Amino acid sequence: MNDQRLLADRTWQSPEWTVSQLVLAKGARTVSVVLPALDEEATVGAVVASVRPLLGTLVDELVVLDSGSTDSTARVAAEAGARVVRRADVLPDLPPLPGKGEVLWRSLAATTGDLLVFLDSDLVDPDPAFVPALLGPLLTASGVHLVKGFYRRPLRVESAEHGTGGGRVTELLARPVLAALRPELSEVIQPLGGEYAGTRAFLESVPFAGGYGVEIGLLLDAHTAYGLDGIAQVNLGVRKHRNRSLQQLGVMARQILGTVFARCGVPVASDRLTQFVQVGGEWLPDTLTVPVADRPPMRDVRTRPGPVR
């Protein structure tokens, strides 16, 4: 049976907090905004610019964590007003793993805020209200440790943009698998969304999936630690970003599925994924390994000697 307490008690369909109200509620707490980035020179500047006016009031740190861009992402982000940190410079004795979750995990060591807000750096037309809305429940509601953004997600197919249809992996994989294995989370509208916020106490207490499983892993871990009362969601309106190919989404889905299975105790027989590509008139298999590995809780890394695994 679905538990609809999240929709009833912890969902803000029309967030109305003003920045002034949130600054007052913030008190002595500090806020870090983190943008993970890899070759996002076309969009990262606008995302940084949407947050920069909040620096010094609601936001204390604005960090772009660059995971090895080969374009001008770092320069564009710095010129727009962010502090740019290279992944390789955070925990430099630890060889990096590939993937988004690795960057977000390292961001915990690169920032100091009591509260962290994560925004994807490939957003198109980012709304300056994203950060205040995501911080609202953390600053005004007791017991909240993770806030997920939700939104309408347009889908661009070639040159045509459709008003809905984005979030394909959410609808075809994440929502069904949560309904089957953790039905209490069926009320989360965007379980894979890259715009969310959390308390440092929570984020440093749980492992981070290294790849695209990071968002659903954090959601499952928040539910395990705090139940539905520790999770909130806020309406961010519309979110546009770069749409990925089906092959890319297949790899993403495999990482997400592996993370869900690991968190829910479901055994996995293989970490390989076979996709098919058409070459001439033939369909040929393309098999790759899709590792699903967690980084340990950051609080353990900060306190224990020896190598991190």
How is this structure best summarized?
The protein has 309 residues and is an alpha/beta fold. The protein has helices at residues 5-9, 19-26, 44-51, 73-80, 100-110, 130-140, 168-181, 200-203, 214-226, 246-264, 298-303, and strands spanning 11-12, 31-37, 61-66, 83-86, 115-118, 123-124, 146-152, 154-157, 160-165, 196-199, 208-209, 231-238, 240-241, 272-279, 282-289, 294-295. The chain is built from eleven helices and 16 strands.
What does this structure look like?
This protein is an alpha/beta fold and 309 residues long. Helices cover 35% and strands 25% of the residues. It has helices spanning 5-9, 19-26, 44-51, 73-80, 100-110, 130-140, 168-181, 200-203, 214-226, 246-264, 298-303, and strands spanning 11-12, 31-37, 61-66, 83-86, 115-118, 123-124, 146-152, 154-157, 160-165, 196-199, 208-209, 231-238, 240-241, 272-279, 282-289, 294-295. Strands 1-12-7-10-5-2-3-4 form an eight-stranded mixed sheet, sandwiched between helices. It has a two-stranded antiparallel sheet with strand order 6-13. A hairpin with a 2-residue loop joins strand 8 and strand 9. Mean pLDDT is 91; it is low at 160-165. This is Glucosyl-3-phosphoglycerate synthase.
